[in-house]
Amino acid sequence: MDTQIEQLKATFEMLPDWEERYRFIIDLGRKLEPLDDEERNEATRVRGCMSQVWLVADESEDDRLHFRGDSDAHIVRGLIGVLLMIYSDKTPREIAEIDINQIFIDLNLEQHITMNRRNGLYSMVETIQRTANRQLDS
To answer: Is 104 a catalytic residue?
Structure first.
């Protein structure tokens, strides 16, 4: 199992309640690598999110995808941070094999975010998976 995903699950289990987990998620958002202004464009914008969200994928020499993202909403920036812990710096094959639904169940995440945030979260997941699939198909 992936150490980043295990670390994320362990942190969630260690935090006593959802107020603390929200703080942790927002803190993840504060630690995101910054995007340049020109990286915030239509090509990197994630559709299906209520707030503005941008995701950028950089491919490393060993075919791993390093994702960076940003949003105009604090909690959404944090959710990007959660997704980057799960998906970033993995190969397209590893990304394709991640069972994101099980991870969300393990984190008990879906019950604690609004329907609009959930839809946006899945839009971000689809964007990441589409990026990985394009690499697999090429």
So the answer is: no
Cβ neighbors of 57 (< 8 A, separation 6 or more) are 65, 66, 67, 128, 131
Total-model pTM: 0.94
Which of the following is catalytic: 25, 49, 65, 80? 49
Using alpha carbons, select from 83, 85, 89, 94 the residue that is nearest to residue 127: 83
Q: What tens digit of pLDDT does each residue of 32-56 get?
A: 999 999 999 999 999 988 899 999 9
In this structure, what DSSP letter does residue 51 have?
S
The 10 Å CB-count burial string (b at 16+, else e) for 9-38 is: eeebeeeeeeeebbebbbebbeebeebeee
Element (H, E) at 11: helix 3-14
Q: Side chain identity at 88, as an amino acid letter?
A: S
- Residue 116's identity, in one-letter code, is N
Q: Is the pLDDT of residue 1 over 70?
A: no
